[in-house]
Structures are given as C-alpha cells and as structure tokens.
Amino acid sequence: MNELNQLRGKKVKIHYNLHKHCFSVKYSTEPMRYASSLMLTDVSFTVNENGRQQVIHEKCKNVHAHVIGILLGADFENMVETEGFDRVTYNPYKRGTFYRVDSEESVATASMALLRNKEVWIA
What we know:
Layout: E1 11-17, E2 22-26, E3 33-35, E4 37-47, H1 49-58, E5 65-74, E6 86-89, E7 98-100, E8 106-107, E9 109-116, E10 119-122
Antiparallel strand pairs: 1-2, 1-5, 2-3, 4-5, 4-9, 6-7, 6-10, 7-8, 9-10
C-alpha cells in the first residue's frame, strides 16, 4: 500500500525534487514522502521571496516555491486527463509567482491541482 494513502485528506506541502525527479511531499514533522503524481484540492501557491532572491543572486536553485493543498490521491500516473485544466508554472528568473502558461496570469490559489511529469495543472 502506498504510504501516501495515509495522508489523504491532510494538508501537504509539495515541491518538485530535481535530484529524485519526482514530487517531494511534506506533512507536519513526518519524514518526506515522494510521488510521481498527485491530486490536491483547496490549493495555494507560495514563493519565499528571500529564497527567490538567493536563486537570482547565486544562480543556484534552492527549494523556495511550494504547492500546498489537501491530498486527494497519489501515484495514479496518466489515469487523470488534463483536458479542462490550465497548466501552471514557476520561473524565479521571470517572476515571483506561479503563473498560467497560456496567459501568464499570476495564480495564488486553485480549487484543484493535478501534479505529474514535472507539471502542475489547475482547475
């Protein structure tokens, strides 16, 4: 049984792990968990501006941007379609917020998010 199932219904904090090539999932003080895909509800997007400025200044990546939400499920791969979802991205060199890929509109919250293949999709 996937250990992430224990976190269903809990508020988690997620970032993309460049070393493991998957999403790192943090809940409270528990050990980090990892997943290739996640579905969240009640989602917010956060960027630590000090961390962002450090990236810009040092040109070296660090963890300073997160997707936070209630975990609905994990590791379902391509079972969920992205049709009807908007793709969201984050680039610390471009701006200090997550934003929609198509319109470049900043995004702070979403009712639902699908994270898979390094990408974030919102509804």
